[in-house]
């Protein structure tokens, strides 16, 4: 019981309410254990590991939170600001990086993917949609942009209007 003043300590220290002042160097893994969660710096893979539901809070008010709740990984701005991602280009992929969901680049297009295939792309003139445009959740009513410069309008699952590049407009069966 009392105070220890030392430049170097070797061996295990079993103590409560330890205050370390100055620069300290830990040469191996370091684990901090608490009543609710553990945190370890793992030297073998240079990672900081924390238990599920442990939140890393950044900022004076802790407005940025990073955590894993056991099922989902969350990065959230819980304050009044905005969460900003800044890069010359970005990609959102699945966890093993085998399927793309969104890509984008400064001065270039942004692409939304379904099943790893680009379906909606922006460019300097507007947007490009692959295949059909469906509105209001009605799968039977849509605009189909097909091959060979053909646009079809469907209602009730039936192609009622067709336009082509030759200036032909078909309505119903005519």
* Terminal Cα span: 99 Å
Q: Would you identify the regions where 5 or more consecutive residues have pLDDT less than 50?
A: none
Strand content: 35-45%
The number of helical segments is 0
In total, how many beta strands? 16
Q: Supply the helix-strand structural class.
A: mainly beta
Overall form: rod-shaped
Report the helical percentage: under 10%
Strand order of the largest sheet: 7-8-9-10-11
What profile does the largest beta sheet have?
5 strands, antiparallel
The average pLDDT score comes to 85
What's the gyration radius in Å?
29 Å
Q: Give the helices and strands as they follow along the chain.
A: EEEEEEEEEEEEEEEE
Give an account of the 3D structure.
This protein has strands at 30-33, 38-42, 47-50, 56-58, 64-68, 73-77, 89-93, 100-105, 110-114, 117-123, 126-129, 131-134, 142-146, 150-155, 158-164, 169-171. The protein has 174 residues and is mainly beta. Strand 8 and strand 9 form a beta hairpin. The radius of gyration is 29 Å and the shape is rod-shaped. It starts with 29 loop residues before the first strand and ends with a strand.
């Amino acid at each position: 019981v009392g105070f220890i003043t030392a430049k170097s300590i070797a061996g295990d220290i079993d103590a409560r309410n330890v205050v370390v002042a100055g620069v300290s160097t830990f040469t191996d893994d370091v684990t901090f254990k608490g009543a609710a969660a553990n945190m370890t710096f793992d030297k073998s893979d240079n990672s900081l590991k924390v238990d599920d539901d442990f939140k890393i809070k950044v900022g004076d008010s802790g407005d940025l939170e990073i955590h894993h709740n056991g099922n989902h990984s969350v990065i959230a701005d819980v304050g009044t600001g905005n969460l900003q991602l800044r890069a010359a280009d970005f990609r959102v992929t699945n966890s093993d990086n085998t399927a793309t969901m969104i890509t984008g680049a400064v001065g270039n297009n942004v692409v939304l993917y379904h099943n790893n295939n680009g379906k909606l792309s922006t460019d300097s003139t507007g947007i490009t949609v692959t295949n059909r445009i469906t509105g209001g959740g009605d799968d039977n009513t849509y605009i189909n942009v097909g091959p060979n410069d053909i646009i079809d309008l469907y209602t009730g699952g039936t192609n009622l209007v067709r336009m082509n590049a030759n200036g032909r407009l078909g309505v119903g069966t005519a």
